[in-house]
Model the fold of this input.
Amino acid sequence: MMGTVRTSNSIPKNNPEVLSRISRNLGVSTALTFHDIFDLNINYDTTQVSLPRPINALVFLCVSPIFDPVRSHLKSTLPTYTGHGPSEPIIWMKQTIGHACGLMALLHCILNLDDGKYITSGSQLDELRRKIIELPPTERAQTLYDSQFLEDAHMDAAVQGNSSVPSALENPSGHFIAFVKDARGKVWELNGGLPGPLERGDLGPDDDLLSHEGVRLTVGEFIDVAKTVDGGWGISIVGLGVDEA
Done:
C-alpha cells in the first residue's frame, strides 16, 4: 500500500520553479536544482522516487493541523539558541521577516548545504553568509531583516509565481521547514519560528535525506500525522539536488 504526499491548493505553494528563481536571483549556482517530491512509500521506501541523488536538503511545507501535533511543544521545551561563530556546526536564523517562511527555509538550505558551496563567491549572499556567521541570533536576524537584496529577490519570485503576494495583514497558513544533511553527516531541522536548530541524528555517507533513515529523521513524523488528520493532503516537499554537468 502506498502513502502519497500531495500538495494541497489550500496551502501556500511550495514551488520548485519559484525557489529556483529566488536562488538564481541570489547568485546561487545553477548546479543546484529543485525537484517536487510527490510520494513516498508508507514504510518510507523511496526506491521508486526518480530524482538526482543524493538529495541532502529539503524544503518542507505543512499546514498547522499537521505541524502542531509534531512540533508545537518544542516552542516551550527547546532551549533558546545563542550560538554564533565559525565553530558552530550549523547556521540557524530566527525569522523576523513577515510572510517569508519559504525564503527562510530556502536560505537555511542554501547557506548550510555543503557549507555554502553553491553560493557564488563575492555575491551579496556570499558576503551576507560570511557576516552572519559571526553574529549572535538577535543581530543575525536584524541583518537579514535589513538586507534589501533578499526582499528584492523574494518579491521578484513571488510576483512571478502562481500565488498572490500576501498582504501585511494576512496570517500564514503553513509552516516551512528546512532539513539539511551537513558535510559531517549530521541531519538538521531548521525552522526560524522555533527557538533554535534541531539536531535530528546522523546519516552514513551512502544515505541521503530520501533514504529510509533520512526520511525517518526528517519528514517521517509529519507524514504519519498527515495520514491520520488530513488524509495525506496538506504537505509539500521540494528536494535540492545537484547537476554538475
